[in-house]
Every structure is written in C-alpha cells, then in structure tokens.
Amino acid sequence: MAKVVTRPAGGGFRGAIEGQLESLTPRDRMLLTILAVLFVVPVSLFVMYLANDIVANKASRVAVVKDNADLLTAMAEEFTAADARLTAGLARSKEQMGKPGNAVAEKTAQEVGLQDKLIGVTEIGAETVNGVRQTRYRVDFKRISLKQSLDFVGAIETSDYPMTVDVARFKTVTERAADKEVKVVDFTVELIAYKPEAA
C-alpha cells in the first residue's frame, strides 16, 4: 500500500512532483526510471537524427551554392575574355569595312598564291537583314588542288574582313601532266560580306 505524503504549502509544481516521487515505492521508482529512460533515449536519438539531417541538408545547400558561385565566376571570366576578343575583332573589322568585298577576295587569292588560277569575282546579290547589309560574291577558280581551295577558304574565314564562306562547290577534273594523271578541282565559292547599314 502506498504511503500518503503531505506536501508543504507553497511548494508549487516542483513540490507536487517531489511529493509524488517520495510517495512511490522503490519498485515504482525503478519502473518510472526505466520508463523515463525508454522515453528519453529514443526521443534524444530522434532529435539527434533530425539535427544531423538538417545539418547535412544545409551543408548540401552550401556546397551547391558554392559550386554555382564558382561556375558563375568562371562564366564571368569567360564572358570578359570573349567580350575583349569581340571588341578587338569589331575594331579590326571596322578598319576593313571601307574595302569592297570583291577586292578582299582577290587579295586573299593573291595571298594564298592563286591569282593565276582566279577566273573572277562576281557580286551576285545583296540584301539587308536586321540592319546588316549582306553582299554575296561568287569566286571561281580553275584547276587548283584541293589543298589550295581549302587554304583560300581558311584565309577568308580567319581574315579581319567581315566575310564568311556560304557555299563551296568542287568539281574534280583529271589532268595529264608528264605522263601522269593528276586530280585537280574547279572550285566555286560563294562568300557573304557583312556591313552595318549605317556604316
């Protein structure tokens, strides 16, 4: 039988708890202690698991943000370098804008050693697209090697003049030279020269 303990007046909540604990038998106190441990340990483990999960989630977010920041920094550096190259290229292109495209094609043919094989440079049309005048030229070569044609295309594409190769046509021709057959090409290329409408 449990013994009844009277609590002192004014003990409040703590006094009530202490009074109840004193009124328990040693067996009941042990059961209460075991129940408290069985409750506190799982709750503590659960709280630690949640805290660990929250910390891991925050660490993952920090890693993603750091990776994004590194990527943005690298992209900003690439943009700055590309912008510098573009600005330099535009400055070089503006220097060349006054030259007619056919003269540039003829000069390029001369630079790659094809002036004797050049049949002609003909302007075949022009149009304005989004404020940029695009003039189309046809350049014809007779009896050149494939390497020479590729040299010409490469020289046009890498020049400072704003011009690109649009269409290239090759016709293979077999020639006899010193009792030997040699394959050469008749080469026609269409170029587009670009010029801002205001320039």
Catalogue the unreliable spans: none
Strand content: 25-35%
Mean pLDDT across every amino acid position: 85
One letter per element, helices H and strands E, the order comes to HHHEEHEE
Amino- and carboxy-terminal Cα gap: 109 Å
Largest sheet: 4 strands, antiparallel
Strand order of the largest sheet: 1-2-4-3
Describe this protein's structure.
The termini are far apart. The protein is rod-shaped and about 125 Å long. Strands 1-2-4-3 form a 4-stranded antiparallel sheet, with helices on one face. The chain is 54% helix and 28% strand. The mean pLDDT is 85. A hairpin with a 4-residue loop joins strand 3 and strand 4. It contains 4 helices and 4 strands. The chain folds into 2 domains: 96 residues; 96 residues, Alpha-Beta Plaits (2-Layer Sandwich). By secondary structure, it is an alpha+beta fold.
Summarize the structure.
The chain is α+β, with helices and mostly antiparallel strands.
Write the layout of secondary structure elements.
Layout: H1 12-23, H2 26-96, H3 101-111, E1 118-129, E2 132-144, H4 146-158, E3 163-176, E4 181-196
Question: Any descriptors?
Answer:
199 residues; Alpha-Beta Plaits; 2 domains
